[in-house]
Specification:
By secondary structure, this protein is mainly alpha-helical. The protein has one domain: DsbB-like (Bromodomain-like, Up-down Bundle), CATH 1.20.1550. A two-stranded antiparallel sheet has the order 1-2. The radius of gyration is 19 Å and the shape is elongated. This is Disulfide bond formation protein B. It is a multi-pass membrane protein.
């Protein structure tokens, strides 16, 4: 199984699939914001940034997945984005399931001064006047952060499999001259 994941990490098609899935999640979030008029909270903005990290990671690997530097940089960024996104989605779910005055999110995103994503891309990363503990949308009894826990968990599991597969030795194939 690990040999399969290692082989996939060398193929552009696998990284392109990651781009498509992450772009699908990003497009869904933008549809909810601009199409349905649901304003994102600060935690939603952080979750979007984690999904954007997945897109950037896959695009780095798409450049040349066989090059060690590109592949490893992509895998590391993929893992960081997936794990950080999972932790943010868990905290966001906690805000919604256990609302209290002392368990609140910030009113403004806390981006570094050198990377103010909310000012650079306000249509994507600027939060609306929404409290993180309010659930604006549900499907099958789950809110958006709970669905994102599922999505980021899947991203994290596949990241772990791909990471472990990088340490698997591949069998050298000998080609017979007289075959």
């Amino acid at each position: 199984m690990l040999a399969y994941f290692k082989e996939c990490s060398f193929k552009r098609s696998a990284w392109f699939f990651l781009v498509l899935v992450a772009l699908g999640l990003e497009a869904t979030g933008l549809y909810f914001q601009h199409g349905l008029g649901l304003q994102p909270c600060v935690m939603c903005v952080y979750e979007r940034l984690a999904i954007s990290g997945l897109i950037v990671a896959a695009c780095i690997a798409l450049l040349s997945p066989r090059v060690f530097l590109f592949r490893w940089l992509a895998i590391i960024l993929w893992g960081f984005s997936a794990i950080k996104g999972l932790l943010i989605a868990i905290r966001h779910t906690d805000y919604q399931l256990n609302p209290s005055p002392w368990n609140q999110c910030e009113f403004k995103p806390d981006f570094p001064q050198t990377m103010p994503f909310d000012q650079w891309f306000p249509s994507i990363f600027a939060p609306g006047p929404v409290n993180c503990s309010e659930s604006q949308w549900q499907m099958l009894g789950w809110g958006m952060p709970q669905w994102l826990i599922l999505a980021f968990s899947v991203f994290t599991v596949f990241f772990a499999l791909v990471l472990l597969s990088q340490f698997k030795r591949t069998k050298t194939q000998y080609r017979s001259v007289f075959k």
